[in-house]
TrEMBL record:
<dbReference type="GO" id="GO:0008199">
    <property type="term" value="F:ferric iron binding"/>
</dbReference>
<protein>
    <submittedName>
        <fullName>Hydroxyquinol 1,2-dioxygenase</fullName>
    </submittedName>
</protein>
<keyword id="KW-0560">Oxidoreductase</keyword>
<dbReference type="InterPro" id="IPR050770">
    <property type="entry name" value="Intradiol_RC_Dioxygenase"/>
</dbReference>
<dbReference type="Pfam" id="PF00775">
    <property type="entry name" value="Dioxygenase_C"/>
</dbReference>
<comment type="similarity">
    <text>Belongs to the intradiol ring-cleavage dioxygenase family.</text>
</comment>
<dbReference type="GO" id="GO:0018576">
    <property type="term" value="F:catechol 1,2-dioxygenase activity"/>
</dbReference>
<dbReference type="InterPro" id="IPR015889">
    <property type="entry name" value="Intradiol_dOase_core"/>
</dbReference>
<keyword id="KW-0223">Dioxygenase</keyword>
<dbReference type="Pfam" id="PF04444">
    <property type="entry name" value="Dioxygenase_N"/>
</dbReference>
<dbReference type="InterPro" id="IPR000627">
    <property type="entry name" value="Intradiol_dOase_C"/>
</dbReference>
<keyword id="KW-0479">Metal-binding</keyword>
<dbReference type="GO" id="GO:0009712">
    <property type="term" value="P:catechol-containing compound metabolic process"/>
</dbReference>
<feature type="domain" description="Intradiol ring-cleavage dioxygenases">
    <location>
        <begin position="127"/>
        <end position="155"/>
    </location>
</feature>
<keyword id="KW-0408">Iron</keyword>
<dbReference type="InterPro" id="IPR007535">
    <property type="entry name" value="Catechol_dOase_N"/>
</dbReference>
């Protein structure tokens, strides 16, 4: 088409595409281009502004490698990752939350009651709960994966002073659907802010901090896998999470306890907890696979 105008360029894009294009691909691309064109018209975008945006994208490409993906981070800090997550999980079970970049496949399998803390610095935290279905039935053999930062706010993959898979494990629930383990309290941390995403934070006066959290993936036969996080009540960043992951049902108290006899009986550490220690109770409710 010659002589496209502000009013015809969006339809021209659609007309250029082959009728054989996969329908969902065509739908998504058409909507994307419609919204991009509408954005440019509504904001009366200038060459200088668009060049700045393209430099931002180019810089994101330059800093991206096998270890770090700035495009995923842009999706996270603009709320797009959380939005896609919420669209795909509008159900009655435990809320889902962002996966983040620090999930490692192959973490060691601990028995129920196992110790993840080992010689990590910090107070002992006992995390315990049940996996249930929507009817409240316990889910036996659910596979739980957990990963978290050490007290210094770093995941093992970011910190060469930590062993591989430090503070990462998997665990299978028992017949009663229960899991339990000992660990340390994770710390709040900043998402990487030394690249384009950092510029975005500084330009908008936003904080790059995330509230402290435990990451979980819970999977069981016939139920929808759940990717979520559990946050600490009272954390200063609960209302400003850089990646929009906090949901009310995911905020838990770290209850301070001093009675060693109140520890669950099946802990690998027996009664050898720091005093005071902290107790976090968190149950997961999984929905049927196709909901
Ligand atoms: C995280 O929770 O590990 C995370 C999530 C999004 C971006 C960066 C880190
Ligand atoms: Fe995290």
């Amino acid at each position: 088409m010659k002589n496209v105008t502000i009013d015809t360029i969006t339809q021209a894009f659609v007309d250029y595409c082959s009728d054989d294009t996969d329908p969902r691909t065509m739908f998504l691309l058409t909507k994307l281009v419609e919204h991009l064109h509408a954005f440019a018209i509504e904001t009366q975008l200038t060459h200088a502004e668009w060049s700045r945006a393209l430099k931002f994208a180019t810089d994101a490409g330059k800093i991206t490698d096998n270890e770090r993906n700035e495009f995923v981070l842009i999706s996270d800090v603009t709320g797009l990752s959380s939005l896609v997550d919420m669209i795909g999980s509008q159900h009655e079970g435990t809320s889902s939350s962002v996966l983040g970049p620090f999930h490692s496949v192959g973490a060691p399998l601990l028995p129920v009651g196992g110790d993840l803390k080992k010689d990590n610095e910090g107070a002992t935290v006992v995390v315990e709960g049940y996996v249930r279905d929507l009817d409240g039935n316990p889910v036996e053999g659910a596979l739980i994966e957990l990963w978290q930062t050490a007290e210094n706010g770093l995941y093992y993959a970011q910190d060469n002073t930590q062993d591989d898979f430090n503070l990462c494990c998997s665990m299978k629930t028992g017949a009663d659907g229960r899991y339990a383990l000992t660990t340390v309290k994770p710390a709040p941390y900043k998402v990487p802010d030394d690249g384009p995403v950092g510029e975005l934070f500084r330009a908008t006066g936003r904080t790059p901090w995330r509230p402290s959290h435990l990451h979980f993936i819970v999977q069981a036969d016939g139920l929808k896998p759940l990717v979520t996080e559990v946050f600490a009540n009272g954390d200063p960043y609960l209302d400003s999470d850089a990646v929009f992951g906090v949901r009310s049902d995911l905020i838990m108290d770290y209850v301070e306890c001093s009675d060693l006899d109140a520890l669950p009986d099946d802990l690998e550490i027996g009664r050898n907890a720091t005093v005071p220690y902290f107790k976090v109770d968190f149950d997961f409710v999984l929905v049927p696979e196709n909901s």
